[in-house]
């Protein structure tokens, strides 16, 4: 794998910037749009937890496990959420795109497919990944449908895989895109973005 480190990626609708502590206040504002932390099947930080979540992601970046981004909407310069590369395996190389959330007001606006196009393009074309994974809660139908729309294929379900903040144990649905599928997935994402407003 090409050395993976903080990078800024700019697309049609969003700019993905390396996560930094100074993003805190705008991330709190973004997460309040839709009160996303109240969805029981997600792991979105509450406003009170945001500073600790930023610190946690930056600490995991130091270990090589994660590369976190802040998502900024280009049309108005507002921060609308967070995403990451995680489970980074530099030897294979492969990684997961996860820990993603976007303000409710940004959903359905083209920002998410644009973000995924940037992350997948960098993973396959710059970092040389053989595969990129996506994980989500079995009960998060919106997320499962969004991942499938990207062109990812469902690999399976990890039963009783992860304890959630409310104490329940989730079944995790695992999807992936492999390098040979990337040109088709890229074409599909570009087509969607060209059709969007």
From TrEMBL:
Keywords: Transferase. It comes from the Bacteria. GO terms for molecular function: acyltransferase activity, transferring groups other than amino-acyl groups. Residues 15-153 form the N-acetyltransferase domain. It holds the Pfam family Acetyltransf_3. SUPFAM superfamilies: Acyl-CoA N-acyltransferases (Nat). The keyword Isomerase does not apply. Signal peptide: none annotated. The keyword Transmembrane helix does not apply. This is Amino acid acetyltransferase. The lineage of its organism: Bacteria, Bacillati, Actinomycetota, Actinomycetes, Micrococcales.
